[in-house]
């Protein structure tokens, strides 16, 4: 029973469908693993074992009666705490929504339920998805399974840590500026940020609406492609979803690198750690030996991605979070009886330091006299970044670069310097600004036994090719990685 938790997603899917494994046995094994290890990792904010086992029992009953909902029926999946599930608390790891129960399902949850997945809510995150380390959660700091003294990344740190610690084979996160790819990199697993508009955002509590995108984590490639197929598609409840050809997981085939043009960065222009830089150059050398041509790209605009991203994201967050006022829902602090005091007291008590910082920055950049100088200028720069990616893909097939400039840093190491923390997203934010898809691929361990990730990026709605390149990269020996069986 214990070995079940170490199966890959694809092995789980096969065993469930050939009848050699029941959903209840698998789910029970994961629940036992969570019980044994989550005190060290703190990936989960809450876990209702009765509800979870009931879903598994129902799946096994359907299988016995020949009424399976899909080939995915009975597969456990973790859900980040900002994705709404009917009747479940959706707190976004914040005090202001600590007791809020969602009255409806997010579109991605509806699609998972239709396929028979066993849902495991609620995975910890940075409050309202604002952070790069999961240290901004109002309730707990999640830890990295490779070294619990280090962060798992953020904001989807709980979702990544749960998969890396073999508590689940797959999970869902959200990515605004790297919040799937960066924790996937630091935890040694797969993580995909789809093209903006590929996956519905209906039921995802908004941070920055023009940047947010739901995506999957997995312990193998097949989990990524299957989940993208299930989650993606036009949604009448979200007018930002795009009417494009549906993604099909069987369209993903390993791509031969011979003759392919790979966009690469000049490493001396960015402050990569020595281990990350060395592994990146080793990967490029290996791809070159397989016949690929390396094409240096001008990433000079990337240096502006952080300020552009934080101006746009904070402006949108100040607008989106204005609804949490102590009146309609959420925490209410009543004192003097004055309306302004109710707003102020409720938001002061309900929001954490980082959320307040971003609301203030966003409100300032949108204020009269500063809008054109800051927010307006950032939007113009965003257009330039989007155009630059379009130019890139006229000359290269795929862009290959590190996902994070460093491996996982220690808990508390960067909390006193928010600017240093923001720089951790320098390689991921431009992807969200451009709206293109990108995936983190595990690329082995550094000399301290910490995971390194490589990010692949292709043009809009070209996920089939993106995952094909990722599948090819996974076959490189230097990219092999084993998840920790015992948590230190």
From TrEMBL:
Stored Pfam families: Amidase
Signal peptide: none
One GO process term, biological-process aspect: translation
Quaternary data: Heterotrimer of A, B and C subunits.
Family (UniProt): Belongs to the amidase family. GatA subfamily.
Protein name: Glutamyl-tRNA(Gln) amidotransferase subunit A
Recorded catalytic activity of this chain's protein: L-glutamyl-tRNA(Gln) + L-glutamine + ATP + H2O = L-glutaminyl-tRNA(Gln) + L-glutamate + ADP + phosphate + H(+)
Enzyme Commission number(s): 6.3.5.7
Keyword annotations: ATP-binding, Ligase, Nucleotide-binding, Protein biosynthesis, Transferase
Domain of life: Bacteria
Domain Amidase: 25-467
Molecular functions (GO terms): ATP binding; glutaminyl-tRNA synthase (glutamine-hydrolyzing) activity; transferase activity
Gene coding for it: gatA
Residues annotated as the enzyme's active site: 80, 155, 179
Source species of the chain: Leptospira kemamanensis
GO CC, any one term: glutamyl-tRNA(Gln) amidotransferase complex
Main function: Allows the formation of correctly charged Gln-tRNA(Gln) through the transamidation of misacylated Glu-tRNA(Gln) in organisms which lack glutaminyl-tRNA synthetase. The reaction takes place in the presence of glutamine and ATP through an activated gamma-phospho-Glu-tRNA(Gln).
